[in-house]
Amino acid sequence: MNDSVAEALAPFPHTAPAGLAPGTSGGLDLDACIALMRTGSRTFFAASRLLPQRVRASSIALYAFCRVADDMVDSGQHSLGQAMALLSQRLDAVYAGRPQEHVEDRALAIVVQRHELPRALLDALLDGFAWDAEGRRYETLEDVHDYGARVAGSVGAMMCWIMGVRSPQALARACELGVAMQLTNIARDVGEDARNGRLYLPRQWLAEAGIDPEAWLRHPVCTPALQGVIERLLQEADRLYGQSTAGVAMLPRDCRSAILAARYIYAEIGQQLRRDGLDPVNQRAVVPTSRKLVLLACAGVQSGWIGRPGVPVPPLAAIAYLVEHCGGAADGAGGASARSLSQRVEWMLTLFERLEAQKIEQRARTRVSH
């Protein structure tokens, strides 16, 4: 069995960066965040086990805050305005270095301080949660992209950021991977969302297929016309998965298998949905554990073979503003000169690694030409 897969199946280790280490108050907060994650996204939980220890704790803390914020907006215990105001106040306190007495806030404050995480990314995520709560309508694919950019693209950018990667191209691909995953979620959850009065499929597409969105919401049924819309959305997700894969090569080597595993497993949800007959109204596509293990193993092997991107690809329009915000944050931090010693060493090692890879590639091309 691949070592990365063996680690993914082992009990969750407690080695963490300073501030989130065992025996500290941050370590106890991390334990609570892990408990939250275990009951949340199984795919994220499985993939996170493949992350190096220097990134794993930060990703768990980030996930825990996102999960609690989503539940807070969606629970109905507060009005939308109250929930958003409370979350904004909590983020204000986190970024001021005085987090409120919530375990996820204290853990997030350590992440923010350690990685100088741009606040704009978390604000974008909260905007997406608010869009959910207010029942926003999505007329076009671009509207759905806008939603996906907030609730998932922002998370992709944050994960990329805490891995120490600041390249606009890498951030763009990370955001697009998040959007692709969200499109997969939308396709899988069509029936469940409809029963909750929510519709994320582009209404324009439904109308083109002869489906009245409001009438369908009142009586959701699976028809060939609906299946065509779902297939169309899955094809868009596949396009973004393909475009985002090149960004994995820009990540540190020890982070690639985890992100590739998440990408493979989410894309497999779409394939499972196809195998189930494109009927998310009457059943929920689930990837079997055995298949997930195969994909985890594939990710561990293939992460070292991903080709580096060629000509830069412009970011998806919906995520461009997130990339711009990250660029401003990186510039404001003073670039390489403002990095810590460990960050500068990591940056130099990555640079040398890329230069060496380019040399090897150039030698191979020279041999072929001769």
From TrEMBL:
Q: Identify the Pfam families for this entry.
A: SQS_PSY (PF00494)
Lineage at the top is: Bacteria, Pseudomonadati, Pseudomonadota, Betaproteobacteria, Burkholderiales
The record ties this protein, via PANTHER family, to:
BIFUNCTIONAL LYCOPENE CYCLASE/PHYTOENE SYNTHASE
Question: Which InterPro entries does this entry report, sorted A to Z?
Answer: Isoprenoid_synthase_dom_sf, Squ/phyt_synthse, Squalene/phytoene_synthase_CS, Trans_IPPS_bact-type, Trans_IPPS_HH
Q: What is this protein called?
A: Phytoene/squalene synthase family protein
Reading the lineage from the top rank, the first entry is: Bacteria
What keywords are annotated for this sequence in UniProt?
Answer: Transferase
**CDD domains associated with the record:** Trans_IPPS_HH
Whether Transferase counts among this entry's keywords is yes
